[in-house]
Amino acid sequence: MRLIFLGILILVTNAFTESPFGIPGGEEVKKVDEVFGVLLEEKYDLEVLMSFGTSSKGSAGHLALSIREGDDETVYSANFYADRTPEHADHYTEKLVPAIAKKEYIYAQTPTLSPKAVFGLDYGEVFKRSLIGIRMTGISATKKKGIKAFYKRLNEDYSNRVESPEYHRGEVVYNYMNLNCAKTVAQALKYGAGFDDVKVRGNHLLASIPGSKYLFSHVPTSTAMNIMDVLSKEGVSFSVVLYKKFAGSEQLDTEHNLKFKDLPNRFPSFKSLDFFNGSKEFESYENLKAMYLLFHLGKFALILDGPSRELRIERQAQPKTYKEALKLASRQGYKKSKNLIRRVFRSMGVKITAENDTGDLYNPKQDQHLKLFPRKPGEI
């Protein structure tokens, strides 16, 4: 009887003394080094990290750029709080684009960047949302050095309050429309690495017209697709890693007044009706094409197991070439998309024909990432 009582006491004690997880200061994720070791077996050079959106509408997500040097990977991510506004003065604002270790950026629960770093944004991103990593192979050491030099210059210009350098129109300071995360990635590849055909929007007189910022702003998905298009013509090859959101974080997101686990986890959208409709269904051609393209380039899907607190490789596949993936994605996106006229009618409650309604393509009850790496028959 005493042994039974002692066993129950131990279980209860463990339940109350179990170290926290999925919050700032929580127990670190296990087996990160082992899993990253497998990923590093492929000799990629750069990785564009595209984070999912967490809003019910207008979910553009976030874009960052990771540079690999040997087995070390450093993420350059634009600082949302580096906008010089009084309400953000208590946050980390020393650099416009800080450099963060990739393992810290995605999986850490304790920051080394700064005590002011924001959980789910500057570190531990996967506790708040999923990420798609577009890995690029065939970038020279010289181009990587140029990217690092550009970010160094960008941070210096931010500190010195430089106005309208050759790579940007206006003050060098974070702005959601004018100088955001996606634009700094495009700038680094264009002005730092010398990929001249990468589009950098808003560096002209038209961008100064009132109300034009939305038209010329960068969004992560369209920027990433443009980068892939340009670099593919330079002989760069691609593979994709899906870093799945941890589904159990109790951390509160004060902007939405929701716990991380309850936040939307939406594939980042192009500027389209998908961007505003608040649904998990995607109907525009560009969004569907991007999703299918990333699916066909998929090589790994990583999942963070809650009970064991271990990082695991959930799925592994052989990616297609960019040319093959693009051809398939273009055909599949066109087949499943809904054109503007049909969508306007449907918003009024009118369906053109039953055959044209493909709203069940993306099941709102499932996480969007399952459509990038769908389960095989018989998988749970």
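^ that was protein a. below is b, sequence first then the tokens
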Amino acid sequence: MTEPTLSITTLRRFDACDLYKRVDDITRVMGRVLHEDEEIPLRIWWDLDTTSVADLWWSLRCLGEPGRRIGAEAACLAARRVLPLTRVQDRAMCLAAIEAAEGWLRGDVAPEECREAAAAAYAAADAAAYAAEREQQRIDLYRIAFGD
């Protein structure tokens, strides 16, 4: 895979926040004035001291397909790390969604199949979050009403 790049023009088109500060930072790091259409390796943008994790995720959307693939792979890694934290009854569905996304990355799974698996996992996650919040509200109301 060739290293992804971003130009100032691309960042401008996607309304990058603090663009002038970022251009000043990258100019300082590179030691020269940059041309608006110059393709600058993403690694240089990411290595700036002012770049946050949210900026890293945001920058992927500027890359089109390569950004989707990088984001999907990173999301799969993160999902696998937290899989043990999911409710036991949802774990197989969540794992199926992760495996579908990994299959899409390999080219083995069609995008529609991947979307269906993701939708099922999202539904399970929403149900779990709703149930957890309802339980927490019950606990809060009980504590407030009865002082326990």
